[in-house]
Amino acid sequence: MGRNPEATRRELLDAAARLFAERGVAAVSLNEINTAAGQRNASALQYHFRSREGLLRALLERHVPQLRARRDELLALADTQPEKVRRAAEAFVLPLAEHLDADWRGRAFLRIVAELRADPTRSAPQVRELLDQTAADEAYARIWKHGRHVPAVLRPERMRVGGTMVLHALADRARLIEHEGRPTQIAPELFVGNLVDMFLAATLAPVAR
Q1: CA-based nearest residue to 112, from 156, 47, 167, 177
Q2: Is residue 44 exposed (0-12), middle (13-18) or buried (19+ Cβ within 10 Å)?
Q3: Which of 62, 81, 66 is CA-nearest to residue 14?
Q4: Whole-number CA gyration radius for the chain
Q5: pTM of the model
Q6: Residues 6+ apart with CB under 8 A from 171
Q7: Comparing C-alpha atoms, which of 118, 155, 152 is closest to residue 134?
Q8: Which residue did the predictor score with more confidence, 96 or 136?
């Protein structure tokens, strides 16, 4: 009896997630992924995903739809609560941070996204499309209502820097969890709350004149 194609696909995705997270996307060959997944057929990965870009897209599709749904849920809640600006910031940070408490796949996702978003121009259009969905345009639209002191010309840069800071902080904590067990120097709730504080401070800091 032949192998279940869905099981083979999952094994390839898991092998790619582990290797990409640990070594970096560009440093891993498709042959290495095939071998790590225990595939004797050298063309198994190409059969299921066609290319590296197809593989990356499939990895992101494991997580991005749920991330967007969770963000939409938090944004809808933010509109009904006081402290709307903080709730909007939480709608960006929390759906990503919740991957820290998922299994290793969620933490690998954070590390891979942090790498890819550091230079999205290196990714194929179909991968960039999914990366864009990990951003927080809807959250920022609400935050800027409280940040009219920030000139429009500076806002894209603050969005880029703030988003990069959040992703790299989460990716670093994901790495620590995988390598050393759950970090104990800062409790998870304090870590995430502090990350929201830093994100808001960087985004809404006064502009030097």
Answers
A1: 167
A2: buried
A3: 62
A4: 19
A5: 0.93
A6: 110, 111, 113, 114, 115
A7: 118
A8: 96
